[in-house]
Amino acid sequence: MERRTLFVLFSILLAGTPTLGQRDDSSEALVSVNVGVILDMGTLVGKMCWTSISMAVDDFYAANRNFTTRLVLHLRDGEASVISAGSAALGLLHKEGVLAIFGPQKSAQARFLSDIADKARVPSISFTATSPLITSSARSYFVRMAINDSAQVDAVASIVRYYAWREVVIIHEDTDYGNGVIPYLIDALQANSIRVPHRTVIPPSATDDQIKEELLNLKMIQTRVFIVHMSLPVGTRVFSKAKAIGMTTKGFAWIVTDGIANLVDSVDHEVISAMQGFVGVKPYVPRTAELEAFIRRWKRKYRNENPEAERIDPSIFSLWAYDSVRALALAVEKVEVKRFSFEKPRIFGNSTDLDALIVSKMGPTILKAVIETSFTGLSGEFRLVNGQLQSSAYQIVNVVGNGQKGIGFWTPKRGLSPQLGSPTNKDELGAVVWPGDSTSVPRGWEITTGGRRLRVAVPVKHSFFEFVRFDEDPVTKENVPTGYSIEIFDKVMKSLPYYVPFDYFHYAIRNGVSASYDLLLQQVPAGDYDDVAGDVTILARRFQYVDFTLPYTESGVYMILWLCSLCFFVFTGFILWGIERMHNNEHFMGPPLQVISNVLYFTFSTFVFAHKQELKSSLSKTVIIVWLFAVLILTSTYTASLASILTTANLKPAFNDVGELVRSGKFVGYSRGSFQMDLLKPTFGSKLIPLSGPDKYASALTKGTVNAVLHELPYVKLFLKKYCKGYTIIGPTQKTLGFGFAFRKNSPLLSDVSKAVVTLMQSPLMDDIEKRWMLTNDTSQCPQADAGGSHITLHRLRGLFVFTGIISSMALLVACIENLLGGYQNPRVRPPEPTLEEEDEPLADDEQPPVDVGLPEIGGPGRDSGAKLEDSGGRGLSMTENSATSQGHREVTV
Ligand SMILES: *[C@@H]1O[C@H](CO)[C@@H](O)[C@H](O)[C@H]1NC(C)=O
Ligand SMILES: *[C@@H]1O[C@H](CO)[C@@H](O)[C@H](O)[C@H]1NC(C)=O
Ligand SMILES: *[C@@H]1O[C@H](CO)[C@@H](O)[C@H](O)[C@H]1NC(C)=O
């Protein structure tokens, strides 16, 4: 309070001496221009700004002694409330006849005061009221000598995007300052596809317990990135509570807006220790020599006025305050206040009613002069546009140790960069020390919230136990889920780069209830489960309850075959080389490089034309011819499967066949409780027969109860594994993506799990899993039942490769034996060679039949029907009983 007394004395001294400037050399009488100052002197910012303002007045007139005007300051403590600031303003207007007011400090006060200022035509110059709720314009008497808060939202959003965080929580105070920027911030985050699942509003009046409770709620949600937009007094309380409950440890990320980032160097040790690892955004001020000198003097003055301060450093608010004084001093000198014979306005002692507000005659002139003033100030280029300062660059800082270090900049044009004016256009920031002294970027979310484990629902099925079934654990005697889907889910969750604890929960699929899987999925948004692992088909309509990972049912494997072809290519080349070398063919002699290139040339040119003339041995010609056939078959097989892949999109679904079923009034079976019920009902009506399990399908088909069964490919495959003989597949009748794991909507795990699924699908582990649960090894027993028509598997073409391999090896063997017997010691002089060549061709032609014989075995993929049966993992297919192998035209639905 002694400060206030001191100040009152100071004001009386200044206000009471109209000839203040007389000690000046100038003989002319100086004109005092009364200026009000409304600050909240209980806050750090208020104290800082007052130090700057009083210093600025002294500095300015010390440097400009011949100025005829003098600003006379009248400080009023506006405290925190709107009312006290309002009454302070009215008092200043009425009692002191101020021509301008610095302040008020708070945005809510400024909103109220801007009305009074407009009415009284007294410019209200604020350097701290940054809320975009208050609009300033060239005509408004509210002049914002500061950058409004909405200018920084893109910088904040860029930081969040830079660290690839997908969700953030916003914590802000419930004031005009706190609320004003939120719509802009949310827009900016949304423009970067960043979700704000939660927003916490803390009123400045909240007790510590209330703050703690709010923070504990935040700790329970998964998001670990917090954007804090608060004034320092509220912020410090939030941070110390956050630290107390362990929310500033490893894994958390905190971003503070400029309201706090500007003041990091001046907060107490306790506060800064709670803010370790925070990232902040603040307007960038270039450090000039002038600024350094100012900072030294300012610190001394501030220390004298506030001896209790622990750490001090002028914030940008102090600089703006300093520059504002200069702007006003220049403006009042320019408008030559004295010419208007400065008078104290009339005082209406009995009225502080706003209607009775005095109106400053000089107001418009002063306002115009103020907003047109521009100069290079301490805070950089000082120029008002629409009555407010414009932002140029923001600095990104990281709170480390006792202060902050710059990690980069953000400009509207360049975005993030480590240096201002660095040439790269790519977003880049320096290294950050995160909360908990961690150097690894926080993931941004946590799966275990307060030790909670993921609840994974597993459907308890009635058929097709290969996908999901429950086995008794020999040790615990508990029923644990296993099966194809579960094994993949286990492997995928284990392969995530972080530990995700989860428990399986049984969910009994009610047999015969239509859309029973949908019922299960609906439990996820209801909060009963987090995920569903099982044979859940990815359907568009199911996305209203859950999100799906990418499908985990198989798709084609072409690579293995290519590798095998390549091996045979080399193998054939080797055989050729072996045989021809024994015949001293000069193409296969000489330096190794030449030999290799020749061998490759001979083998490869087979693809284009037969190259027999260059070959000396009839054996190698045989090898080449066999290889030629193999190549022909491979080529046609690839062409066929490629064509089928390319034309899948245009494939007419076998609805024609299904249509025939409908027209002829045949009965069609479907899996009890399957989603297909809804799809089939309009078509088949009462002709639909629900069946449960492959055994029922088979018996129904055999008995003729149904003529066809409709089901998805993975089930069809399993059915065919069991009952391959005599059934055939028609399809696809309808396309589905396959099976996927269902997750809570917008689960942060989703993309990582999808990635893990794809990685697993591409790994050799997948073959083991498929072999263990699916039909992969038994395809050969049911050649006509193979659904994957376009799949060229090594298995299918093994006859071709075996045939080629045996012929080639035998040729080499014969050549070796001949060579050992010495029959070809001097082949160059042997005359019958051309004859042999001629004989060879018919011989080779004679060998065609064996190759042709091989074709039916091999040629599945090339067949028309095969191409139609394009497999993409889980397409709907219908099966009909093969009329060739069984009596009648019965069709079975699976
Ligand atoms: C003050 O003096 C400077 C030169 O010292 C001059 O440029 C300036 O115009 C003067 N200002 C006024 C208001 O007389
Ligand atoms: C805030 O500042 C930005 C950039 O300086 C400007 O585009 C915007 O209009 C301002 N908003 C308000 C409400 O004054
Ligand atoms: C102030 O009070 C005086 C006397 O009570 C009265 O004559 C005058 O009209 C009042 N002024 C206003 C503005 O109400």
From TrEMBL:
Gene3D superfamilies: 1.10.287.70, 3.40.50.2300, Periplasmic binding protein-like II (3.40.190.10). Residues 835-849 have a biased composition (Acidic residues). The keyword Secreted does not apply. It is a multi-pass membrane protein. Keywords: Glycoprotein, Ion channel, Ion transport, Ligand-gated ion channel, Membrane, Receptor, Signal, Transmembrane, Transmembrane helix, Transport. One of its GO terms (cellular component) is membrane. It comes from the Eukaryota. It is found in: Membrane. GO terms for molecular function: ligand-gated monoatomic ion channel activity. CDD domains: GluR_Plant, PBP1_GABAb_receptor_plant. Residues 453-776 form the Ionotropic glutamate receptor C-terminal domain. Residues 826-894 are annotated as: Disordered. Belongs to the glutamate-gated ion channel (TC 1.A.10.1) family. May form heteromers. Glutamate-gated receptor that probably acts as a non-selective cation channel. May be involved in light-signal transduction and calcium homeostasis via the regulation of calcium influx into cells. This is Glutamate receptor.
